Amino acid sequence: MSNIEETKYYYGLKEFADISNKYGINTSTEKLSVYRRRGLLPVPTVMIGTKAGWTKEQIERWIKDKKQS
Q: Contact at 8 Å (CB) between 18 and 38?
């Protein structure tokens, strides 16, 4: 049995914007930066230096909530 954990992928603002746009939420990295400063994005799962990272599930949940509002 291995002790190596599965590698997880985290998405930065660029990927967050790309995924959002793919699902019909017209946004950009600049707009998402403003949303983040205003507390309108999910809390990042990871921080690497000053770069935030979200899981795909967090992004998809945010998109779903945004479409419902």
A: no
Q: Which residues pair with 8 in a beta bridge?
A: none
CA distances from 28 to 3, 40, 64, 69 (A): 39, 14, 17, 19
**Cα separation of 51 and 4, whole Å?**
25
Quick one: pLDDT band at residue 7, thresholds 50, 70, 90?
Answer: confident
Please provide residue 32's backbone torsions phi and psi, each rounded to the nearest 5 degrees: -65, -35
- Of 13 and 1, more confident: 13
Backbone angles phi, psi at 5, to 5 degrees: -80, 155
